[in-house]
Amino acid sequence: MTASRSNRRDFLKTSALLAGTSSLAVPMVHAASSEVLKVGLIGCGGRGTGAASQALRADRNVQLTAMGDAFADRLQDSLATLKKDREIAAKIAVKDDHCYVGFEAYKQVLASGVDVVLLATPPHFRPLHLQAAVAAKKHCFVEKPVAVDAPGVRSVLASCEQAKKHGLSIVSGLCLRYDPGFRETVKRIHDGALGEILTLQANDLRGRIWVKERKPGWTDMEWQMRNWYYFTWLSGDFNVEQHVHYLDVCAWLMKNEYPARAVGLGGRQVRTEPKYGQIFDHHSVVYEFANGVKFFSHCRQQQGCKGDMAAYVAGTKATAVVAERELSISSGKKKWKYGGREGDMYQLEHDELFASIRAGKPINNGTYMSYSTLLAIMGRMATYTGQVITWDMALNSREDLSPSHYDWAAPPPVAQVAMPGVTRYS
Questions:
Q1: SS in 3 state form for the chain?
Q2: Would you say residue 338 has pLDDT above 50?
Q3: Are 221 and 412 in contact (CB under 8 A)?
Q4: Dihedral (CA of 159, 165, 171, 177) sign
Q5: Are 174 and 32 in contact (CB under 8 A)?
Q6: Are strands 116-119 and 37-42 parallel, antiparallel or unpaired?
C-alpha cells in the first residue's frame, strides 16, 4: 500500500503496453493432489476470516501459511477464530514470523511462498494488491467490490488481462454467481422464459450496521481505517460496497451488458453524525441501457424501515424474482420456483477456485467483477453530483480517491459529504 497517486497513474499509463506483451511465465498448475497449496490471507476482518475458512475447506491438501492486516489485533483475532474451528485447525500453519502487520503487509505475504492469496482488505486497496499478486504470479480470490474509483477499475482490468497471460485463476467474491439456484434461474431467463426483458429493479434495503467509536490516541488515518465502511475513499460508499451484489445480478440477467447512462438521487437523512464519515444512507438510481431498457436501483440503510434484498425482472412473457429468499418465474397463474440442489455460494466459489488450480484450467472473473464495480461507482457519481452520468464518463473518470501516501500520521482524504448540484464530476 506504499504506492502514491502518481504510482497508480504511472501504472495506468503503462497498462496498455503490458497488456500487449507476451508472457514467458509457465502457468502454475497443481494437478497432483499430493502437492500442498499454500494460502495467504490479506485482510483479516470478518469477511477475510470467512474466506480463509472456506478456502481451507475447499481442498484436501491446503494450508494457511501467512496472514497480513493493517492492524495486529484484527490479525490475531482472525487467527484465534480460525484455530477454534476443529474442521480446519490442522490446516493452519501460520508461524509468528508469517504474521505481517502494517500498510506493506501484503508485500510480505506475497513474498512468503504462498500459491494462492485471498484479497479481503477494504476495497480501496484491491487494485494495488491485485496488481502485486498477479505480478508475483499468485492465484487470487478477490472480494467485491474491486475498486472505489475509475482508475482503480482500469487497473484491475489490466491486472486480470495479465493474469490470463500467466495462467492464473481470478475468482470474484460476487458470490451470487456461484449459487446453484441463481445459475438455474438466470439460465432459464437467458433461454427466453421472460421473453424480451423490459425493466429490472435491484433492491438492497436494510437497517444500520456497525460503527466503531473513536478511541484516544487514534490518528485521523487510524480512525478512518478502523471505520473504513463510512469513508468513500475506502469503501466506495455502501451502494458500491454492498449493493454491488444485486447490481451485478441485473447485469448478469442482461447477459453482461451494462447501461449507457444513469441519473439518481441520494443523501444523508439518518446517519448525519461525524462518526458516520461521509457516505450517504440512501441512493436511488435509474440506469438506462442503449436499447431503452430501464433498470431501477434502490439501496437504503435506515433503521425501522421496510427491508428487501432482491432483483425483480419484467419481460414481455413473464416476471421473475431473483433473490436468496425466492427464485421464481411467473406468467399468469403459472409459476416456476427453484427447488433444486442447494449449496453454500461462499463455499462453492472457493471450491471452484481450487478445482481450477488443480486442473490447470484457470477461471478469470475479471471482466464482470470490474464492470459491475464500475456500475456501482457510476450510480454513486450520479447521486453525488445530481447529473446524468454516461458509461464512458464513469469508465474514463480521472477522479482518484487515494491519499497522498500511506502512513498512520498521514492525512487521509478530506471526509467531505457530497452535495448534489454542487459536487462535480471529474
A1: CCCCHHHHHHHHHHHHHHHCCCCCCCCCCCCCCCCCEEEEEECCCHHHHHHHHHHHHCCCCEEEEEEEECCHHHHHHHHHHHHCCCCCHHHECCCHHHEEECCCHHHHHHCCCCCEEEECCCHHHHHHHHHHHHHCCCEEEECCCCCCCHHHHHHHHHHHHHHHHHCCCEEECCHHHHCHHHHHHHHHHHCCCCCCEEEEEEEEEECCCCCCCCCCCCCHHHHHHHCHHHCHHHHCCHHHHCCHHHHHHHHHHCCCCCCCEEEEEEECCCCCCHHHCCCCCEEEEEEECCCCCEEEEEEEECCCCCCEEEEEEEECCCEEEECCCCEEEEECCEEEECCCCCCCHHHHHHHHHHHHHHHCCCCECHHHHHHHHHHHHHHHHHHHHCCCEEHHHHHHCCCCCCCCCCCCCCCCCCCCCCCCCCCCCC
A2: yes
A3: yes
A4: positive
A5: no
A6: parallel
**Mean pLDDT, the chain, whole residue set:** 93
Q: Residue written as cell 462535480?
A: 424
The residue to which cell 490475531 is assigned: 76
pLDDT digits (tens, 9 = 90+) for 283-319: 999 999 999 999 999 999 999 999 999 999 999 999 9
CA dihedral (376, 377, 378, 381) in degrees, to 10, reads 130
Q: Using CA atoms, how far apart are residues 369 and 170, in angstroms rounded to an integer?
A: 10
Task: Give Cβ neighbours of residue 49 (< 8 Å, ≥ 6 apart).
Answer: 41, 78, 81, 82
Q: By CB neighbour count within 10 A (0-12 exposed, 13-18 middle, 19+ buried), where does 232 fall?
A: buried
Q: How far apart are CA 299 and CA 71, in angstroms?
A: 31
d(CA 374, CA 217): 36
Domains annotated for the chain, with CATH where assigned, are 5-176+347-365 (3.40.50.720), 179-341+375-396 (3.30.360.10)
Q: What is the pLDDT of residue 31?
A: 43
Could you identify the residue written with the cell 464495480?
A: 373
Of the candidates 293, 207, 270, 289, which has an alpha carbon nearest to the alpha carbon of residue 242?
A: 207
Contact 309, 205 (CB under 8 A): yes
Band the pLDDT of 23: cuts 50, 70, 90: very low
CB 110 within 8 A of CB 136: yes
Q: How many other β-carbons are positioned within 10 Å of the β-carbon of residue 283?
A: 27
**What are the phi and psi torsion angles at 202 (to 5°)?**
-125, 125
